[in-house]
Amino acid sequence: MVIDIITIFPTMFSSVLNESILARAQKKGLIKVKLHNLRDFYNDPHGKIDDASYGGGGMVFKPEPLFNAVEAILGYKRYPLEKKDPNTRVILFSPAGRTLTQQRVRKFFKYERLVLIAPRYEGVDQRVRKYLVDEEISIGDYIVSGGELPAMVFVDSIARLVPGVVSDRDSVENESFEKGLLDYPHYTRPEEFRGLKVPEVLLSGDHVEIKRWRKEKALQETNKHRPDLLT
User: Fold this and answer.
1) d(CA 64, CA 55)
2) Terminal CA-CA length for the chain
3) Average pLDDT for 68-83
4) What are the residues facing 89 on neighbouring strands?
5) Which of 27, 63, 140, 170 has the greatest CB tally within 10 Å of its CB?
6) What is the phi-psi region of residue 108: left when phi exceeds 0, alpha when psi lies from -120 to 50, beta otherwise?
7) Mutual orientation of helices 20-27 and 148-159 as an angle, nearest 10°?
8) pLDDT at residue 50 tops 90
9) In the CATH scheme, what is the code of domain 2-159?
10) How far apart are CA 222 and CA 231, in angstroms?
C-alpha cells in the first residue's frame, strides 16, 4: 500500500513515521508513506497557498495548489475527470466528514493507494471538497489545529492491518472494535500485586474456558463503557 500525505508541515510527521511499528513497516517495504509539501505545487513567489474567505472569515486553502498536488501525485486530472482509478482514494480530513471507525478503516484497507489531504485554518475551497476528493473523514467531534494529527491516526490504524506489520496477528484480530466489542481485560505478571490476584481461569491452561471468559468479559466491558456498540 502507498499512502501520500499532502501537508504544509511535513516535518510534523517525522517522529510518528520514523519510530516503532510504522518505522519497521516502511523498512520492511510493507507500506510506503510519501510526504508532499503543498507549497511545492504552487508557483507563488511568497509560497502563499491560502487566501481570505469570500464574504468574510478566516483563511482557506486555495483550489489550485491542491488540484496541482493531487493530480501530480496520481498522474492524471481529477477534474475534468480523465479516468477513475478504482484502486485509489483521495481523502480530506474535515469536521464534516464521516467519523472514522474500525469498520471504515478496513474499508480503506482494500485500496492500493490513498492520498490524504491535511488542511489548516478554515479548511479548503469548496471546489476541492466537491470535485477533487472522494471522501471526507473526521476522527471525532472535537477540533484540532489541522489535518496532520488525524492523518497520523489514520495511517497508523491502516498500517496495523497490513500482514507483517504487527507480529502477533491474533492480537490484531481481537482488538477493541474488530468484532463490534471492546477488548477483554488483560493481566500479566506478577500473579498477585498488593493483594490483587489474576483471575484463576487465566492461570488454568484451559483454553476453552479462557476463550469463554474473555468473550463474557468483552461483553461486560462493552455494556459498561460503550453500550451503544451493542444496539
Assistant:
1) 20
2) 34
3) 92
4) 114
5) 63
6) alpha
7) 60
8) yes
9) 3.40.1280.10
10) 11
* Position 55 confidence tier, pLDDT thresholds 50, 70, 90: very high
The HSE-up count of residue 83 (CA atoms within 13 Å, CB side) is: 7
Q: Is 154 exposed, middle or buried (0-12, 13-18, 19+ CB in 10 A)?
A: buried
Q: Structural domain boundaries of the chain?
A: 2-159, 174-230
Q: Which pTM does this prediction carry?
A: 0.88
Comparing 31-45, 147-161, 177-191, 214-228, which segment has the lowest mean pLDDT? 177-191
Strand partners, 98: 137
Q: How far apart are CA 128 and CA 49, in angstroms?
A: 13
CA distance 152 to 156: 6
Place of cell 507563488: 44
**Each residue of 98-113: pLDDT tens digit?**
999 999 999 999 999 9
Long-range contacts of 203-208 (CB under 8 A, 24+ apart): none
Q: For residues 171 and 209, what is the distance between their CA atoms, to the nearest angstrom?
A: 18
